[in-house]
Amino acid sequence: MRLVATTSVGEGSLLGKAIYNDQGQVLLNVGARLERHILNRLVEFGIGYVYIKDPDTDDLILSNSISDDLRLNAIKTIGVTFKQIQEDTKITNTFVLDKASRDFKKLIQVLLEELSSSKDLLNLLSDVFNHDHYIFSHSLNVTLYALAIGIEMKLTPKELEQLGLGAILHDVGKMKVPEEILSKPGRLTGEEFQVIKAHAEDGFQLLRHVPGVPLIVAHCAYQHHERLNGAGYPRGLKGEEIHLFGRILGVADVFDAVTSNRVYRPAMLPHEGLEILYSGSDSLFDPKVVDAFRRAVAIYPVGLTVILNDGREGVVAEQNPGLSERPVIRVLEENNQRVVPYHVDLKTNLSLMIVSCETILKYQYANN
User: Fold this and answer.
1) Which residues are registered as beta bridge partners of 285?
2) Which terminus in the chain has less CB density within 10 A, N or C?
């Protein structure tokens, strides 16, 4: 199956991977015919990419980074807690967060088990979900990215648990931000941006007195917008003044933000998000963290159409663990001519590299 921008799917194409809402209900099942009104609706839902069927790639295996059931349960657990904080008083917030921390620690252990047992690179783009509340899904995604980085950096089990808890709760302060600001489609005013920026301090204050939450977790909320050169907020910390967890969360948070659809801009593809991290490596982001991220996360998802430096065009067929930029490519076209598909492994063909990606199909298969 092919990974295609929703705005570019040919009318009548067949869906290759089911789309769910955050309650676990199937919005569109595999094989659904994508008529124009359905495609328009998916765009409105903020679903930027979908998998569609085509005969050249229908045998490709898409492995979920975590199971659908676990993802849905995790988002529900995060959502229940965050909504209670949004609605409750300061006194009961401490009780809510103390109870939630126990549930979150159990969740983190399950996430770590699935991530550690998987031989595949982390690929969240393959998880096609429509979410009513961005912060809930964002909190889970940042947790998965942070844990993947932590595993790659050989953190201890205790450190991974604390990092995971800090990642889940890093944006908890946004529950104090008015919804009309969080969901504003246009540019924020200076005053609105100051309200948004306060979420780091608010999150720290919410977490620092919770008995079941280590102080380092509160500092994850405090520090995830700090940057190596001091350009971040709220305190303008520099270099190693920022805890390792804060540096990890800074990378995970930015990557998920730019690769997710938002009301004010479309999602980037993972390799474009990695370029954002590379451009800020050693000035904004810790280069060791960026490198660990690169080794742990699928930069070119299976099903993505790519063009090689010798002009050949194909589709990412499988990943090479630890070498996210060197996947196996199923070549479909040479010299602008269709060919019998065959595989090229960029791990062993070092003279080859991916020079661009396509999310628009040259050949549509609307009647399969």
Assistant:
1) 281
2) C
**Residues spanned by the domain of 151:** 68-296
292 and 331 both lie in a single domain: no
Q: Which of 353, 239, 325, 326 has its CA nearest to residue 289?
A: 239
* pLDDT for res 363: 60
Any idea what the CATH number is for the domain that residue 50 is in?
Answer: 3.90.105.10
For 21, the 3-state DSSP assignment is strand
Please, what's the b/e burial string for 271-281 (b: 16 or more CB within 10 A of its CB; e: otherwise)?
A: bebbebbeebb
**pLDDT attached to residue 308:** 96
- Do 14 and 97 reside in the same domain of the chain? no
Residues 239 and 317 in one domain: no
Query: 10 CB contacts (<8 Å, ≥6 apart)?
Result: 361, 364, 365, 366
Residues of the chain with pLDDT under 70: 22-24, 88-91, 125-132, 262-265, 361-368
- pLDDT of 253 reads 97
Q: How many domains does the chain have?
A: 2
Give the pLDDT confidence score for residue 131 in this predicted structure: 57
**Preceding amide of 234 cis, omega within 30:** yes
Residue 52 identity: I
